[in-house]
Write a structure and sequence with these properties.
6-stranded mixed beta sheet; 245 residues; alpha/beta
Length: 245
């Protein structure tokens, strides 16, 4: 896929990244990541070991997040480390790969959470933080431009995995599992062009952003019906008729 090639052309590695955060202050309380070396076209060559840390927050986790993730205040007290130390550990985990990596997230909330956590921690290693911020890529924005649900909302990570024919591996909302499954989804996305074309065809035929005549024609194409120009023009005339008194 040429679009992927353009996005990744300056990188040698993809770091699939996920954060869990507090309910109200949106501070990172856990990070999970897995790194993969890639070919020039963005296809994955090899996965490397994954990474996971718990991070101490300045503010309470919140009951909703605890119920969702299983992360408690006690866990952060016993296993959590300072955000600045986590970033140093993360850079060590990547080693020489760090400056050649694109950080892939599922949704832009991870970027916002990362920036928010940096602002809460005055000892944040700025060079590390800026390198990550400048090289974040929201994979959800890309995949949701081709595949959405019947109401035109993006799917969850687990549901995108199901659409591509595999089950989410491990417990959801564990950042390490989320990162690993994001990598698998990315890999399925770039390998299955014909499947993506079929899903995009569904998306186009049902989107409300297209004019009615175009949607009607696309639905006929989906049903493998031939369409003549006269029929297309008739749809346009009917559409105009509906717009005018």
């Amino acid at each position: 896929m040429k679009q992927i090639s353009k996005i990744v052309k300056s990188y040698k590695y993809l770091v699939f990244l996920d954060f869990e955060g507090t309910q109200y202050s949106h501070e990172i309380i856990a990070i999970g990541a897995t790194v993969a070396s890639i070919k020039s076209n963005g296809q994955i060559k090899k996965y490397h070991a994954s990474f996971k840390r718990y991070v101490k927050a300045k503010n309470p986790i919140g009951n909703f997040v605890t119920n969702l993730t299983g992360i408690t205040e006690e866990k952060l007290k016993s296993e959590g480390i300072r955000f600045s130390i986590m970033l140093e550990d993360f850079k060590k985990y990547l080693g020489r790969k760090f400056k050649s990596s694109l950080f892939v997230t599922f949704g832009n909330y991870d970027y916002k959470m990362f920036a928010q956590t940096c602002s809460y921690n005055l000892d944040t290693p700025k060079k590390i933080a800026e390198q990550i911020k400048m090289n974040m890529f929201d994979f959800l924005e890309l995949i949701s431009s081709f595949i959405r649900d019947d109401k035109h909302n993006p799917y969850s990570l687990a549901n995108y995995c199901k659409i591509y024919g595999f089950e989410f591996e491990g417990k959801m909302h564990d950042p390490e599992n989320d990162a690993i499954n994001l990598g698998k989804l990315y890999e399925a996305f770039i390998k299955n062009k014909s499947f993506l074309a079929d899903e995009y065809e569904k998306f186009l035929a049902t989107t409300n952003n297209l004019p009615t005549p175009i949607r009607l024609i696309l639905n006929k194409f989906r049903n493998k019906e031939d369409v003549k120009y006269e029929e297309y023009h008739k749809y346009i005339e009917e559409f105009i008729d509906d717009q005018l008194p």
